[in-house]
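Q: Please design a sequence for this.
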């Protein structure tokens, strides 16, 4: 870079040269730290990169959340018109990238969709940790500036990371198992979405007692009452779930077939102290008036009818075992195949009269009471 400096006469002058370099930037990275007892600590760090082919020595660094060269423009909100159209024919495809719907001969309750991700990938963390002071925060209307303390070297190669900010998040700790999906127990921290310092999905690294346990996806979904952050497997708790019954019967005078199911889950505690374990299981939910689901045994678990989810907390004594059993039956047309679809059910309830979100069993818009 060459700059011409013109002065009216000979002398000593102070001048500052500013220019925009597009070959540099930064990305936020997040870490979740927990000791299993106190508040969660969520740390925001900045990963700085620059491709200017030279090292920056002793440089003052500020990190901005906005792009100073992107002015942007307000989008034009167009009208939305509705009309009736004929649906396109549905195509069924097979492959790893397609959503799979399991169609079974006599039931909707076995080998459903691919299991959802539980736990974390067991991998090592190659990021070099740098213990530095937190950045000074300056919040403006369109962006936030993080001024890093002191001066630092930003190398053209290598990992340039800096601590920016840390947040304390209240958490409740519990041991949870979902044996229908994964026969393991996990230590989780339950937090309220409104307490999280982020509003978009992030992929933080998790440290339990300063040991890296993996990476998770954290979605601050405000429609949920709480979010469970997985900290790692609880190796002292073993889980085993088995199918104990499956009986099919056909009605003589009705074109109907009934299938009864039974499952047993054994929770064992190998530690020297008692442990409370939250068991999450389920029974299917019918979406068709010709299909009925009846619970036969729930072992005292709490049932959410809209989702079919079961929850029960059991106290497993040191060196002991607790047994959790569920049973249900599914009845449907014997000449029809029953399909199943696994999806999340929103925790929000909507008013059947006006469609607004219900608050405490009452609609704040039209006054409807459930």
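A: Design:
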């Amino acid at each position: 870079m060459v700059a011409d400096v013109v002065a009216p006469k000979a002398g000593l002058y102070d001048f500052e040269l500013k220019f925009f370099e597009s070959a540099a930037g930064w990305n936020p990275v997040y870490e979740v730290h927990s000791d299993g007892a106190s508040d969660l600590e969520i740390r925001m760090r900045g990963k700085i990169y620059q491709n200017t082919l030279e090292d920056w020595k002793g440089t003052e660094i500020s990190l901005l959340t906005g792009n100073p060269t992107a002015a942007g423009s307000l989008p034009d909100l167009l009208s939305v018109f509705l009309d009736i159209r004929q649906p396109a024919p549905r195509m069924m495809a097979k492959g790893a990238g397609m959503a799979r719907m399991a169609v079974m001969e006599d039931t909707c309750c076995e080998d459903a969709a691919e299991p959802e991700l539980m736990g974390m990938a067991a991998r090592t963390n190659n990021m070099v940790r740098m213990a530095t002071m937190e950045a000074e925060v300056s919040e403006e209307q369109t962006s936030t500036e993080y001024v890093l303390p002191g001066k630092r070297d930003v190398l053209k190669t290598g990992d340039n990371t800096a601590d920016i900010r840390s947040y304390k998040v209240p958490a409740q700790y519990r041991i949870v198992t979902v044996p229908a999906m994964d026969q393991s127990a996990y230590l989780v921290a339950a937090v309220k979405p409104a307490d999280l310092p982020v509003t978009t999905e992030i992929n933080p690294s998790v440290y339990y007692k300063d040991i890296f346990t993996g990476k998770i996806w954290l979605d601050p979904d405000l429609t949920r009452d709480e979010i469970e952050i997985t900290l790692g497997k609880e190796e002292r708790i073993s889980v085993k779930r088995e199918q104990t019954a499956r009986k099919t019967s056909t009605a003589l005078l009705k074109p109907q077939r009934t299938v009864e199911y039974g499952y047993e889950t054994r929770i064992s505690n190998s530690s020297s102290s008692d442990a409370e374990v939250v068991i999450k299981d389920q029974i299917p939910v019918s979406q068709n008036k010709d299909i009925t689901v009846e619970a036969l045994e729930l072992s005292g678990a709490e049932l959410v009818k809209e989702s079919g989810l079961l929850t029960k907390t059991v106290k497993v004594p040191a060196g002991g075992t607790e047994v959790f059993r569920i049973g249900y039956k599914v009845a449907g047309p014997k000449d029809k195949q029953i399909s199943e679809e696994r999806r999340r059910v929103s925790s929000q309830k909507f008013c059947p009269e006006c469609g607004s979100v219900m608050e405490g069993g009452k609609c704040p818009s039209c006054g409807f009471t459930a």
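Q: Thanks. Anything notable?
A: Residues 93-131 have pLDDT under 50 and may be disordered. Residues 274 and 318 are 5 Å apart (CA to CA).
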